[in-house]
Amino acid sequence: MKSQLSTKHREENKKKRDKKRGTQPRIDNGCVNSRAMREMFRSYVEMLVSTALDPDMIQALEDTDDELYLPPMRKIDSLLNDQKKLLLRRISMSAQHQEALHTYPNMTADPLESGAVWVHLGGEGYSRKTLSRVKKSVAKQQDMKLSMETCRIYSLYHSLHHYKYHTFLHCKREQAAEDPGQEEVVQQCMANQAWLEDLFSSFVELLSLSAKA
Predict the structure, then answer these.
(1) Which of 9-18, 162-171, 174-183 has the lowest mean pLDDT?
(2) DUF4211 domain location, by residue (predicted)?
(3) CA geometry: angle at 60 spanning 73 and 106, to 5°?
(4) Is residue 6 within 8 Å of 56, Cβ to Cβ?
């Protein structure tokens, strides 16, 4: 079933590419809540839902220089990276701390009586390229003590860096909630407007909070 789904998705992608070739909207960074951005974000999520069904999806898109899903993915990835760069200008982050934030996809924090925050980083490693989990020879968890303000910036930076992966996990859970025997599972996920709106609202909020940090 998986190979049939993968083949069907790629055939549908080609049809959509042929239909929409050259029509990807140009987005101004300040218009993250625009209709064009919503359409781009929808394509981004659809690509991630498809990747949840076919782990080779992103690589296949790049191998074929896809014109339907690659532009939205690259644009949103670029927006997230731009916000990360802005945050790095506002705080002095050591290379060791940055590497830890990059390595671990999960972050929790416990406030201390002193007013500082004890931050815990953990979670399984994954490939930034395919979003599939990979085994890495690193400690299961890394902790660091930060000021409350530094923790706030670190948390935003961490959320931006791992946004694609965590959104992929949301898509994977949504896809799993559908009937696994349905070849139209992607369409069913994308028909859930409330779910899509929640994802988009969270995306806009993250960019907004990062811009104001």
Answers:
(1) 9-18
(2) 33-113
(3) 50
(4) yes
Task: Determine which helix (DSSP H) or strand (DSSP E) holds 176, and give its type and residue range.
Answer: helix 163-177
**CA-closest candidate to residue 151, choices 114, 202, 199:** 114
Phi-psi region of 65 (alpha: psi -120 to 50; beta: other; left: phi over 0): left
What is the b/e burial string over 65-80, where b = at least 16 CB atoms within 10 angstroms of the residue's CB?
Answer: ebbbbbbbbebbeebb
For the chain, how far is it from start to end, CA to CA, in angstroms?
46
Q: Which two tokens stand for residue 128?
A: 């930034």
Total domains present in the chain = 2
Query: Do residues 153 and 97 share a domain?
Result: yes
Asked if residue 82 and residue 15 are part of one domain, the reply reads yes
Same structural domain, 149 and 131: yes
DSSP 173-211: HHHHHS-TT-TTHHHHHHT-HHHHHHHHHHHHHHHHHHH
Burial of 102 (0-12, 13-18, 19+ CB in 10 A): middle
Q: Are residues 150 and 185 in the same domain?
A: no
The total number of residues written for the chain in this structure: 213
Domain extent for 141: 93-158
**Shared-domain flag, residues 59 and 6:** yes
Q: Which residues pair with 110 in a beta bridge?
A: 118
pLDDT of 86-108, one tens digit each?
Answer: 999 999 999 999 999 999 999 99
